Each structure stands twice: as C-alpha cells, then as structure tokens.
Amino acid sequence: MKSVKIRNLFDVVVIGGGHAGTEAALAAARMGAQTLMVTQSIETIGQMSCNPAIGGIGKSHLVREVDALDGAMASATDQAGIHFRTLNASKGPAVRALRAQADRSLYKNAIREIVEKQENLHIFQDDVVDLDIADDRIRSVRCAIAGDIAAKTVVLTTGTFLGGLIHIGRRSKTGGRAGDRASTDLANKLRALPFRVGRLKTGTPPRIDGKTVDYSELLTQHCDEHASTMSYVGHQSEHPRQVPCYITYTNERTHEIIRAGLPESPIYSGAIEGIGPRYCPSIEDKVVRFSDRPQHQIFIEPEGLQTNEIYPNGISTSLPFDVQVAAVRTIKGFENARITRPGYAVEYDFFDPRDLYPTLETRLVESLYFAGQINGTTGYEEAAAQGLLAGINAARKVADSPQWFPKRHEAYLGVLVDDLTSLGTNEPYRMFTSRAEYRLRLRQDNADIRLTEKGYELGVVSLARWNSFKAKREAIQECKQRLQETNIHPDEERVRTLEDLSGERVSRELKLYELLKRPRIETEVLHSSGWLCDIPYAILEQASIDIKYEGYINRQEKEIESANAKERMAIPETLNYQSIDGLSNELRQKLSESRPRTMANASRIPGITPAALSLIAVHSKRERDQRKIA
Amino acid sequence: MNDTICAVATPLGSGGIGIVRVSGSNVVHIAQQIFGRCPEPRIAEYGDFRAADGECIDSGIALFFPKPNSFTGEDVLELQGHGGRVVQELVCERVQELGARIARPGEFTERAFLEGRLDLAQAEAVADLINASSKQAAHAAARSLSGEFSREVLAIDREVLELRMYVEGSIDFVDEEIEFLDVKTLVQRAANIEEQLQSLLRRTELGATIQNGLSVVIAGPPNVGKSSLLNALLNEDRAIVTNVAGTTRDTLDATINLNGLPVKFVDTAGMHESNDPIEEAGIERAKLAMKHADVTLWVVDDRVEDAPDSPNCDDLVVRNKCDLTGLSPGSVNDRTVRTSAIHGKGLSAIHEFLVKSAGYQVNDDAFAGRPRHLASLRQALDRLQQAILSLKAKSGDIVAEDLRHVHIHLGEIVGETTTDDLLGEIFSRFCIGK
C-alpha cells in the first residue's frame, strides 16, 4: 500500500481516544512530545461507554491523582458533573470519596475541547490495522486509509474494541460498543504476537426513556448541598445545574421473568467465555447467585441535562430484548417504561498485564505501551490513570529519560500498576481502597501533595498548576504552624460553641494542635466555632487531617521501610516452584505463572500462606547460595 | 533433589544406645551398602553395620522411613547401635563414604519445615521440646509441635479476617447491597476475639515461664545462713556450711522443680565491707547476680533488730534462725518470712511465694512461647484493643488500619513476615541431628 505521510515521524502515537487514550496523548503532548492520537471516530473522543458517573470510592482517589499530574478527567468532570455527592463522609478522610454523575455530552465536549487545545497533539480519524515491529521494537502503525505512520513509541488503548463481541440473548455480533465497530483486524495481528491473551466480559443495562418513568413513588437521592470540585484547581461555579438521582428496586416478579429467560441468556447457555467482574454482576447473575434476596437495588442515573434518557444502574443484562422489556416493566416506576437502547454484554481481548513493566511498557516489544481496559482493568478512572502513566513514559522514552512509576505508598496508581504487573488479573480489575495498604496516606485530599511536585519534575505538570500548588502547600504549612501556636482557654466564649458541637470538654488551656487529636474534634467543628476563620476551609482541613493522622502515618512510615526491605529481597528468576514440595499445587501454579520478582510481590499473591512465604524465602536463599558456589 | 545428610542423633559421649540418622535422596543406597539391604519400611531389623571392606563396625537395629512419611519428609534411615563415641563416629564416617555429608545444626528440622512437614511455630517447638526441663515444659512444647498453637493462632486469624471483611466491606461497598454489621455487633465480635487472644497470650506466657523458669538469688549479710537455706531448699548438702563468716566466696547455683516450675537458686557471698580481694570479687558477683535475678531472697538473722535492708524493695526478706528467737516460722507477711533453715522450717512459705511471683499455676494448657511469639501476640492484642476503642469513637479508616495490623502481627507468628535472617536464626538454634 502506498502510504500518505501525515508527518514523517511521530514521537508518540496513541491508538484510541477513550479515557486512557486521551490522558496518554495529553500527557505526552504536555511533555513536549510530538503526539498523534488515532481514533476510529473523533466524535467518540471522551465517550463514557458505561454508566454516566465519574469517581466513587477508590476511584475518586485515582481521578485526583490524574488531576495532580495535570490530566483532564477531573476538570472535565467539574464542567460536566450534574450531581456531586461525597461518599463515606463519616468514615474518615482516607476513605472519603467524591462521585459525580456526568452529563455525557458535556463531558465529551469538555474532553474534546481540552484535547483540541493541547499543543503538540494531532488528532486523526482512521482504523489502525497493524503494528510494524522489528527487532522487538515498535517501528510504525499501519492505518487503513493513511497507511504507515512511523512512531518512536506507541501507546495502545483499545478498550473493549479488540475482538469485541456483543451479546444480546442468543444473538451476538462483533462490535466494541453498541453502535461502534470492533477492531478485529488489529486484534488478529496482536494475537499473533507472543503476548498472553485472555477474554473478559462486561455489560450494560438497557437505557430507558425518562418520560416514561413514574418518579412519584421513587426514593429521591439529592446531591451534596455544598458540592466539592473534582479538580484541585476547579471551582464550583464551573458545575452545571444539579439534578437528583432516584432509587428503585426489582421484585419477585422481575426475578421470575429473569429466571424464565435464563435458557436464552448467553452467560448460562455458555455462549460467553469471558469472565465478568464479581463486584458488578449482571442482574441474571444476582438473581441466580443470591436467590434468597427478594429485591435488588437500582440506582437511576440521569444521562444528561439535554436528554430524558436514564441509566438504570444495577440491572446490566444480556438477556434477549423481549425478556428485558418484560422484566423492566415489573419494576416500580418503570411500569410503562420504554427502552431506548437494549442492554448487552461485551466480550473482549485483554493482554495479561504481567507481560508489562510497571511503567506500562511491554516486556516483549520495546517502546510499545498498553493502557486501560486492554490490561484487564475496568472503569474510566483506572483507564485514565494508566493512560497518563503510559503517556509520561512514552514521552520520557523519546527524550531518553529514565522511566517512572509511583510506588504503592505513593499513589493508588502505584497500587494499580504493581497489582496488575505482578499478579495479573482474572476478572476486570477495579480499584478499591482496601487494595491500598497505605490507605491512610493515599487520600483523595492529598494527591497533589503526593504527586504534583514529581509531575512538575517529570514535565507533565504546567507551570500554572505548579505555582498554584506551591501556594497551597505553603498555606498548609503556615496553617499547621498556627495550629501549633494557637492557645485555647477554657473560658473563651467560642469554647462553649465548640463543646456543644463536638461533645468534647475543654477543661484546661491547650494548643489547637492538641485539641485536634481528639476524635470528635473535626475541622468542621473548629471552623464553625470560629477558629482560624481567615484560613480557607480546604487548607484548614488538609492541615487538620495531617495532624489527626500523625501517629498512624508515622507508624506507616516504618511499615513502608520494612516493605521496601522486602521489596529488595529478590527472588531468583531461576527458582523452580514445581520442586518446592511444601507448596500446594494451586500455589505452585500461581507462583510459576506470576513469577514474583520480590518477596513483597510474592506476599501479595492471593491465597499465599505465611508458611509458603517462608518456604520461598528459604529456597530463594538456597538458590542464591548455590549460585554463589557455582 | 536434596543431598543426603547424616548426624549422630543421640547425645555425644557414651550411652546405652547411639543412633545415627540419615536423610535424603541417597538413603536406600546407603542402607544397602552399610546394612546389606534396605529394611522393610518402619520395621525394626537387626543386622551388622559393615565397613567398605566388609568388616563389622557394630551390630544393631536399622529402621527405614520412606518419604514422605518421615520426620523430614525425605527417605530417612536410623542406625541404632551401641552408644560408644568411637563406634558412632565410625558409623557416621562410613555413611559419609557412601555419599552423605554431616548435617548442619538444625538441618533435619529445617528439611522437615522445607518439605512442609512442619510450620514455623512447630519447627521452633522441636527445639523447645528437646530443651524442656520439666514435664510441663515438655507438654507445652509438644502441644506447639502438634500444631495446636498454630491452629489456635490461625483460628483467631480467621476471625480477624472475617471482622475485617465487614469493616472493609462497609468502606468500599457503601452503596452496594452488602450485609452491614452495626457498631455494637462489631464491638462484640472484636471483644470476643480479644478474649481468645488474651487466653492464648496467657497460655503462651505461662509456657514461657515454664520454659525459662525462675531465677532466685539468695543474698544478704555474712553468716546469716544463706548456704544453709540453699541446702534446705534443695533438700541436699550442696553448699559448704560453717560457722565462719564468709565461707561462701563464689556464687553457687542449683535448680529444683517446683510443681513443674524450674527454679534456679543462686547462693552468693555475704555482703559486707571486706579487704580480702577474693571476697570482694565474690561480693561483686553477688551484686551482679541480684541484678539479673527474677527474685532475691534477702536473708537476715532473725535475732538482729536493725538488719540491713535489701537493696530492692520487691525482694522477699527471709528472717532466718528463728529457732534462736523462738518466733514461729512460715507465712509471708509484708514481704517477710521467718525460717529456720537448719530445722527445715518455713520453706514451703518460700516455695509458695516463688510460684506465685512467677505467675505460675499448675495448669496443663500452656504453649511453648518464644519471645517473638509473645511480642507478636501482645502487639496483636494491643492493636485489637485500639481497634475496639476506634470502633466506638473514631472513623472507619482508623478501625480498618488497626485491624489490618492485628492481622499482620498474627501472621508473624506462623511465619508471614519471616525473612531469611529470622529463619537462619531459628534453625541455627537447633542441635545436630534432632
């Protein structure tokens, strides 16, 4: 094929314009790399293929990390969020999380605008059909129309499009998402490479015309009165009009219809081979596995301000369309509902992330990076964070700079890439706060403190954000200083207010700093009783959280040190797990597959027992001793 | 494939029987060569142990335990011959000729551990069982060896895991339809775990006491009857007793068994101003012994009204020679007891005091506890107690953090955070061939 040159050579070519693709392309371009984003359809850049919400527990932590590195997701959410709600508000700052329902088109527009404005970033609409790899290094990508485009590095972010197969009932057809073509040619080419490939499954519920829903009897869920912003540099004034969500439930009649439809379900008929997420089962799974539950919750999410369509979260399904219609109409509020788009399941290829470095570069092909669902993850936030990391490393590769990735104690992104690249996954991987052992440090409120300075060093953070961050960091320091210095007297007037609000007693003179260590003295209490009112609330909150958690965080520092020691305890690559008699067959299998690089990695393998770890430690030592002798 | 190791398994020196133990992949060959055949599994067979030239080194019983049903999990051969040192060494040398090597300290146990026959706590219990100095200590070690200790730790670990499941679930899946437990139920469950952990800790502490015993120093001014008291407590004439002050110049120790509690008594030189360099050195040693003792028996003459006070207030003051004052012996009062060592009076009051101060009770449910087990159990208990407080007052993220650490500390006992070094330490403490 004769090739038409868009440009002789790109530093970074990003394949895909989803959440991973946009962050990868933006990050590389921010770092000065000449970047090309190739997408099947420019119209779908920034599209939310699943439910119209960003953030949530564990996920807002990732969004904030993306934001701390100057990524687009948080800002776009502030521009598109039509229902902001803080989750786990009373369970402590470490697990507090912000979630926003987003208007799909506002979100897409916001992302599109950021992408189009970005210097060094070129967008091109075409199908990538092949990758040219020579001497285990990526050389160029082949597009269906434009032909070969030479690339120093390539980031592959093809989501569910590789070998995508959509199921509704017994009918299936290829496709990456309803209405979009799958990347079958590219999938076939990639399958020929020596990467380990697996199949995963995910699904969506049918969408419903909101005009046909009777909300009068449904539970209303209102958004927060004082909405936070998703971005550290965002402002509430960016938020569009806020709307409520609603809650309804399935019932026994719904379940009967679903049970009757099971023989037609592609999951139960065996048509689907991919593994779906345990934490996000389809409604037919819920009905079968939790048959004693009389009802299942449905969270009715608005699709946007300009549309009546709603997304009934909780009834994802691949049952035949007529069963979907019948089942939906048994649900309270949906008696006369009209489905606008049928629910479906989609199966897709993913590449075993254990074939990646934690930088997201593939181990087998130099300068080729994978990010997003292709690595077996699920979720916009997980995808965006990976995209950002891959973009950073692709740009650094081009500049001949060392690769970078955050550690487990630095970021959820660090936990994510470490889990994926050392353990792999056998279901779509989603972030949870419980995956992070240093959870008390990795909060959504301090992602910028953790990452922005590093981002500035890496060149992915703009000067403007760096300056505003520095000002914030100084303000927090000053605030801490004042908390250390300010005395409070028991007979002060505002102490009464404080006592009333908190239920704590102040019986002697003490510093605000000491007072804050008491469990019931929250930032809110301090602020409302009239202390340090001149300090912006966000700053005061940040300072008080640090003080409150000081003891625990210092203890974690020690744990991190000892974990780092384990991290340095390498397991010899030659270690033969099959020959360790004390290990169970299951563990031998798991260990042989994932080949942990260090004792720290080994200790995180699911199902690993303390005794097994001791065995690995001793055998590693033996192996090393023997090699020393040899 | 493991190489083959051998060692004399019985104590070195002369004894009725001497056992050479061989373990590894070459055992069958070695048996055929030295014994002329490989014995039937687990059947004691009598025969000759022969040298390379066919000469008989010794005659005795050969026992063969094929893998994996042996102590180490490998093929094991035991050659039970006569207990002479030279004879045992000859057998060992012959086995080495046939391809075995002398085992490193603790290597048999190490192999048992590596083959998955023992977990870490069990492996440690082997050493404790061997070193047990009383029946109770042996029982405690045997219970740990049987895996009962590990099982109890694991059972508690499971419950912590379940508790964590609820706590973590309520954090990560707040909007989902999962079963939540209210704070009251969580506190109840945590308190229940706390109780189990406390009981386990108590039994392990008891085991440690049995293991380590009690060290008791007998000190005081000269010529108050310290050595007589030692002899009386031991019920034998161990120390030289004269009526000359300063007869005891060096420390002297002896151990008795008080209902299973090993008690080591240390007799010391009488404390007074002295110019005799030998006596001075003895007094220095006495002071040092007192510093390291669990309990000091500060002995004074009952006839002396203003006897010098003991340097430590928590010692037991023994007013000896009460036969000469006519006051009645026995019963500890205000940390003071009257005795008459030469008439053997008032001794049981001292025994009772010692047993009580060790926190020892005759109770056969102890576990052989090592310092690291105790440390981990105490830390786990501490974090659990904090978690209970946090559950009542603080937020979920702190509770979760405390519970995570309970888990980590329990994991330390059965081996989770074990490093190379710790393992090396543990195995080097075993003696050869056990």
Describe the structure.
The complex is a heterodimer of chains A (630) and B (434). Chain A has 20 helices and 22 strands. By secondary structure, chain A is α+β, with helices and mostly antiparallel strands. In chain B, the strands form 2 sheets. A 7-stranded mixed beta sheet of chain B has the order 8-9-7-10-11-13-12, with helices on both faces. In chain B, strands 3-4-5-2-1-6 form a 6-stranded mixed beta sheet, with helices on one face. Chain B is flat. The C terminus of chain B is likely disordered. Classes of the chains: A alpha+beta (630), B alpha/beta (434).
Q: Which of globular, elongated, flat, extended, rod-shaped describes the shape of chain B?
A: flat
Main beta sheet strand tally, sense and closure of chain A: 7 strands, mixed
Q: H/E series of chain B, N to C?
A: EEHEEEHEHHHHHEHEEHEEHEEHHHH
Query: Helix segment count of chain A?
Result: 20
Which key phrases capture this entry?
heterodimer; A: 630 residues; alpha+beta; seven-stranded mixed β-sheet; six-stranded antiparallel β-sheet; B: 434 residues; alpha/beta; six-stranded mixed β-sheet; 13 strands; 46% helix; flat; disordered C terminus
In brief:
In chain A, 37% of the residues lie in helices and 18% in strands. Chain A is an alpha+beta fold.
Topology at a glance:
The complex is a heterodimer of chains A (630) and B (434).
Chain A: E1 9-15, H1 19-30, E2 35-39, E3 53-55, H2 59-68, H3 73-80, E4 81-87, E5 97-102, H4 104-117, E6 121-125, E7 128-134, E8 137-143, E9 147-156, E10 165-168, E11 171-174, H5 184-191, E12 197-204, E13 207-209, E14 219-221, E15 245-249, H6 252-261, H7 283-289, E16 297-302, E17 309-313, H8 321-328, E18 339-341, E19 344-351, E20 368-370, H9 380-398, H10 412-423, H11 447-458, H12 463-485, E21 487-488, H13 493-502, E22 510-511, H14 512-516, H15 523-528, H16 537-548, H17 550-568, H18 585-594, H19 599-603, H20 610-629
Parallel strand pairs in A: 1-2, 1-9, 2-6, 9-20
Antiparallel strand pairs in A: 3-5, 4-5, 7-8, 8-9, 10-11, 10-19, 12-19, 13-17, 13-18, 14-15, 15-16, 16-17, 21-22
Chain B: E1 5-8, E2 17-23, H1 27-35, E3 45-50, E4 56-65, E5 76-82, H2 85-97, E6 101-102, H3 107-114, H4 120-131, H5 135-145, H6 148-172, H7 183-212, E7 214-219, H8 226-234, E8 252-258, E9 261-267, H9 277-292, E10 295-301, E11 316-320, H10 322-325, E12 330-333, E13 336-338, H11 347-357, H12 371-393, H13 396-413, H14 420-428
Parallel strand pairs in B: 1-6, 7-9, 7-10, 10-11, 11-13
Antiparallel strand pairs in B: 1-2, 2-5, 3-4, 4-5, 8-9, 12-13
Helix pairs in contact in B: 4-5, 6-7, 6-13, 7-12, 12-13
